[in-house]
């Protein structure tokens, strides 16, 4: 019953133009989050970071960080490598509340952190990082 209530509230919030993540990673609504997202730093607003799908036609940049969400809870964080390419760090992601996702990297080179989903619509993901 609790899962049904959570899925119903997730649908309402998604229709309002935001992303609710209070369900398991396998939820059909979270399909929007799945994929590879690259940082569109030129669109950031204060502490809100903007990400677009890796297929977006980004303007030239000296490099872009990003991440990949897989449907099964697997996560890859992409950082700028010493050779200016991208270096992937594997980990896991899990929805912990209506708007929070907890990230845990396998290599533990940085502590676990959370991403607050500010919005997810029209191919634009806006998040706030919370330590």
Automatic annotation (TrEMBL):
<protein>
    <recommendedName>
        <fullName>Lipocalin-like domain-containing protein</fullName>
    </recommendedName>
</protein>
<feature type="signal peptide">
    <location>
        <begin position="1"/>
        <end position="21"/>
    </location>
</feature>
<keyword id="KW-0732">Signal</keyword>
């Amino acid at each position: 019953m609790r899962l049904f209530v959570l899925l119903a509230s997730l649908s309402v919030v998604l229709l309002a133009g935001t992303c609710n993540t209070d369900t398991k990673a396998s939820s059909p609504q979270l399909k929007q989050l799945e994929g590879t997202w690259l940082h569109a730093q030129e669109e950031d607003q204060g502490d809100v970071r903007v990400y677009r799908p890796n297929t977006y036609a980004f303007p030239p940049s000296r490099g872009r960080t990003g991440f990949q969400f897989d449907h099964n809870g697997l996560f890859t964080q992409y950082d700028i490598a010493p050779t200016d390419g991208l270096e992937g760090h594997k980990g896991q992601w899990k929805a912990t509340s209506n708007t929070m996702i907890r990230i845990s990297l396998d290599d533990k080179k940085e502590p676990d952190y959370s991403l607050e989903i500010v919005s997810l619509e029209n191919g634009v993901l806006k998040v706030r990082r919370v330590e």
